[in-house]
Specification:
The complex is a heterotrimer of chains A (about 425), B (about 375) and C (about 150). Chain A has about 425 residues and is mainly alpha-helical. Chain A has 21 helices and no strands. In chain C, β2 and β3 form a beta hairpin. The longest helix of chain C is centred in the N-terminal third of the chain and has 38 residues. The chains are: A mainly alpha (about 425), B mainly alpha (about 375), C alpha+beta (about 150). Chains in contact: A-B, A-C, B-C.
């Protein structure tokens, strides 16, 4: 009886242990059993990798893509008559993935919020068009970016399409000069992107919402943005600048000149953090590419730069004096609080540059200048108060010295009396 | 009786009948200070006492605004410095007087050492003085953390870490000091309790003993002076010496005020345990010679960890210094003891040189 | 002759005593004055560390409005939602540290510098801000609003 109970418990345990994680491959899938034992890495590798694949986690087995019959344990399992297709060809991949991923009804059972337009999107991409129209077998298809057998959702840090890894995934082909040799596009985008402010924001500051390749080019429908709509793409995030730019004199001129909107001054892949040096006619100024000291635009650029410099200097000066006062133990928190408005004004003035008008910059900079001036004045007052403390010190030291003098006189008197008594 | 009343007034008489002021006055008038070329060193003890009194009074004032918790300590000190009138002055004086007090203590200690004032029957006076020295360093170590700023946080971290290197009891001692495995708010609360309750209580007792013994034995006359057999000159403690003391104290106060006004105590940035340690963490200057010694020690000395060797070394050194009255047999017999003079000079030189190196040697080495 | 010397001595002593007394008095004053001023509690009343009591009455904050207050030397924003709930956040935009404001028309916290939007939980929902606003805890205690950092 006891033994039977033990056996029962053991059986239960074993069942539990072998119980597939929710929706894992059905126990009848025999593909992996053989593939793992072949000793041939080409056959065993995919079977092993697949364990971490999202499709495995959702209960889809090998046959979902490869066809065949997983219940058979021999080579009969891979009978083309049973729908076995082996390794899908490049042209086939789209259809294999799309069979489920384009089926809204089907996808709803797994992830109702997942889009189902990837195949349509892909058809509009440069990759898709080349594959369809030219039969180009080097272009990316689904499995190029979502490696078959180890597909993970974009939220998974190990995924090839996690925001932090997208650039490298695209770069696998696009940064490979040998692979890209046949195409007339550069291969330095990855390197340039990695030097950009966007890449820094993502990798250093950990801001995963910062843009990587697909945020500007699209992912499944990847294409280079057209000259005329670069601004719309950047304007997704940089709305205020895009608005100002659209209304500015440059918007029309750039289109006429064939300049790529924002990228004319900020570049496309190697976007550097914007700095005040970019404005004006100095060495690093981007305006100087077209404008000179004599034309109207050059003068405006110089003037805008001067306004912004003036505000920055005033703000920094005020901040420095407040900091000094604070370190000396003076209460200037109200002034530092008010000075926040000046740094806000500075940001706004820098933004206003994209209207390319001195008035727009001046309108934002003026209040900032006034605030900085007041904060500086308060800093000066605080330091004067500090000087006043020192005057207070002088007074108390004088009092102490007087007391010392009195004591010394007293000592002499006492000593004299003492000597008189002794003598 | 009438004459006394005339001299001192009715209040004195009233008090005298109840407390016995006349006896105290007699006692005070009896106290005499020997006058010779080393008399100047007699002022140092009083000076240390005066600075200690300043510490007590400014410390009590600081308690009115200080809040001993990791969340509020830094902010309350900031508030004190910025919002409270003269808060900057009180805190700066507390911080500067602490440093001056330790300095005076060192000078007092070494003058006593070199003048051989520890000779019998003053051994216990010397021991209590050594104890007070340890307490003062404890005050400095615990007080340094209280503003809860970055520098103090990391200095305390290093300081308590060094305690942890002690053989056998090190780990336990470190946990005890930190109130846990790490320097946290618990450490702050603990240090606060030690700083404002434990150490003051111990100091009061030990200081009482020290002063009582000084009073009982009178001022020690250095053997070099006493041996000459010249007629001994003295001056009364009251009022001659006390008035001179007062001059010294007032000068110290003026210096403190000037230091507070021109070099106010800084606060720096709030401690953040998750930030990397800032460059150039330094302990308070009076710990510098030990800190620097530990830096120079090799990783292993005869198979024992260098740090342990250093700590045990300082322990033995402190014990040696404390036991000098027993070790120095010649002085005890009233003979000249050049060896111990040289030992004293060597200790002073060692401390001065290592402290100097601590402040000048490159931080990256 | 001797009388004169004694007289001079007495005058001298009187002068020294007077001088000592006066300067000792002045000294005492110069010590007591700062100590007295130190003991008088400052106008702000409390350390502005973790909490701040606002100069705004709860009734003055109408539903679907917001206003900026001073938290130390940094701005904070107090919002009363349309449902009447009081919320407080750091008003420092997480993008480039401009001061944000409340937009009654869209019920968003909004940064004018680069059109950053935050919802009423402080979460960044549109535009360049990379992170949500730091949330504070706002409590109405009687006729006062107390805002504190953290819970």
């Amino acid at each position: 009886m006891r033994l039977a109970g033990l056996g029962y418990a053991l059986a239960l345990l074993l069942t539990l242990a072998s119980w597939p994680a929710e929706g894992a491959s059905p126990p009848t899938d025999r593909c992996a059993a053989c593939h793992l034992e072949t000793g041939d890495e080409r056959l065993a590798g995919p079977a092993r990798e697949f364990a971490g694949d999202i499709h495995a986690a959702k209960g889809l087995g090998c046959i979902a893509c490869h066809g065949g019959d997983a219940r058979e344990s021999g080579l009969e399992a891979m009978d083309p008559a049973k729908g076995y297709i082996g390794k899908p060809k490049r042209q086939q991949i789209l259809q294999v993935c799309g069979r489920c991923h384009s089926d809204a009804q089907f996808m709803k059972r797994y992830n109702p919020s997942l889009r189902v337009d990837q195949v349509t999107e892909y058809a509009s991409s440069v990759h898709g068009r080349r594959l369809k129209e030219l039969g180009d077998s080097k272009v990316a298809t689904c499995a190029s970016c979502h490696p078959a057998h180890s597909i993970r959702p974009p939220s998974d840090p190990k995924s090839s399409v996690h925001p932090l890894r997208v650039a490298d995934t695209c770069g696998r082909c696009h940064a490979d000069a040998k692979y890209m040799a046949g195409y007339k596009i550069p291969t330095d985008q990855l390197q340039k992107y990695k030097s950009s402010v966007h890449s820094q924001a993502m990798t250093v500051k950990g801001d995963l919402s910062a843009p990587t390749c697909n945020d500007c080019h699209g992912n499944h429908g990847a294409v280079p943005p057209g000259i005329s709509w670069v601004g719309n793409v950047c304007g997704q995030c940089h709305t205020v600048m895009a608005e100002l730019f659209k209304k500015s004199v440059h918007a029309k001129v750039f289109v006429e000149m064939g300049n790529p909107g924002c990228a004319t001054c900020h570049e496309n892949h190697a976007i550097k953090p914007a700095s005040d040096e970019m404005l004006g006619l100095g060495d690093k100024a981007v305006c100087a590419a077209c404008h000179g000291a004599d034309d109207k635009g050059g003068k405006a650029a110089t003037e805008m730069r001067a306004r912004i410099d003036a505000l920055r200097t005033a703000h920094d000066k005020a901040q420095a004096i407040l900091l000094k006062a604070e370190h000396s133990g003076m209460e200037v928190s109200q002034a530092s609080f008010d000075l926040n408005a000046a740094s806000g004004a500075l940001v706004k003035a820098r933004t206003a540059v994209h209207a390319f008008s001195v008035d727009a910059v001046a309108k934002e900079a003026e209040p900032g200048l006034a605030v900085s001036g007041k904060a500086f004045a308060r800093g000066v007052r605080a330091l004067e108060e500090l000087a006043f403390r020192r005057k207070g010190l002088v007074v108390s030291v004088v009092i102490i010295l007087a007391l010392i003098v009195g004591l010394v006189l007293k000592i002499r008197q006492v000593d004299r009396r003492q000597e008189g008594r002794d003598g | 009786m009438a004459t006394v009343e005339k001299r001192h007034g009715w209040l004195w008489t009233w008090l005298d009948r109840r407390v016995g002021l006349a006896e105290l006055e007699k006692l005070a008038r009896k106290k005499e200070i020997p006058v010779h070329r080393h008399t100047v060193w007699y002022y140092l003890g009083g000076m240390t006492l005066f600075l200690f009194m300043i510490q007590v009074s400014t410390g009590i004032l600081l308690l009115f605004y200080y809040r001993p918790s990791a969340e509020e300590a830094f902010e309350s000190v900031q508030f004190l410095m910025a919002e409270v009138e003269f808060g900057w002055l009180i805190r700066s004086i507390h911080s500067w007087a602490a440093n001056l007090m330790i300095l005076m203590l060192f000078v007092h200690l070494f003058s006593v050492l070199l003048l051989k004032a520890y000779a019998p029957p003053r051994e216990i006076t010397w021991f209590s003085g050594m104890g007070l020295m340890g307490l003062a360093m404890g005050f400095g170590f615990t007080g340094y953390l209280l503003p809860w700023n970055e520098l103090a946080y990391f200095a305390t971290k290093v300081g308590t870490e060094i305690t942890g290197a002690m053989p056998v009891i090190g780990g336990f001692l470190r946990r005890l000091l930190r109130g846990g495995d790490e320097v946290t708010g618990a450490t702050l609360t603990r240090f606060y309790g030690i700083h404002v309750a434990v150490l003051p209580a111990l100091t009061t007792g030990l200081l009482g003993l020290h002063l009582f013994l000084v009073q009982r034995h009178g001022m020690s006359v250095p053997p070099g002076v006493a041996g000459r057999g010249a007629p001994r000159r003295t001056m009364p403690f009251l009022p001659n010496f006390l008035l001179r003391d007062l001059v010294g104290w007032l000068s110290a106060l003026a210096i403190l005020a000037a230091l507070a006004a021109y070099l106010p105590a800084e606060l720096g940035r709030k401690a953040d345990p998750f930030l990397p340690a800032p460059a150039g963490i330094k302990p308070e200057w009076y710990f510098m010679f030990m800190f620097q010694t530990l830096k120079y020690l090799p990783a292993y000395v005869l198979g024992v960890e260098g740090e342990i060797v250093g700590i045990v070394g300082f322990g033995v050194g402190g014990l040696f210094l404390a036991l000098i009255p027993f070790l120095d047999r010649r002085t005890a017999r009233g003979e000249a003891s050049r060896l111990f003079t040289w030992i004293g000079v060597a200790i002073i030189l060692y401390m001065v040189v290592l402290t100097y190196l601590g402040y000048t040697a490159s931080a990256t080495k | 002759m001797a009388d004169e010397a004694v007289d001079r001595e007495a005058t001298r002593r009187r002068f020294i005593n007077w001088f000592l007394g006066t300067s000792a008095g002045a000294f005492l004053l110069s010590v007591l004055y700062p100590v007295g001023r130190y003991l008088i509690p400052p106008a702000v009343g409390e350390s502005t560390a973790g909490t701040v009591t606002l100069a705004i009455k709860p009734d003055d904050v109408k539903p679907n409005t917001g206003q900026i207050f001073k938290f130390g030397s940094r701005p904070g924003i107090l919002v009363r939602t349309a449902q009447g709930e009081l919320k407080a956040f750091s008003a420092v935009c997480t993008h480039l540290s401009c001061t944000v404001q409340y937009r009654s028309d869209i019920s968003h916290i909004w940064c004018a510098c680069h059109n950053g939007h935050y919802d009423l939980n402080g979460k960044n929902i549109e535009g360049p801000p990379p992170r949500p606003l730091d949330a504070y805890v706002a409590n109405a205690r009687g006729n006062q609003i107390v805002v504190s950092k953290g819970a």
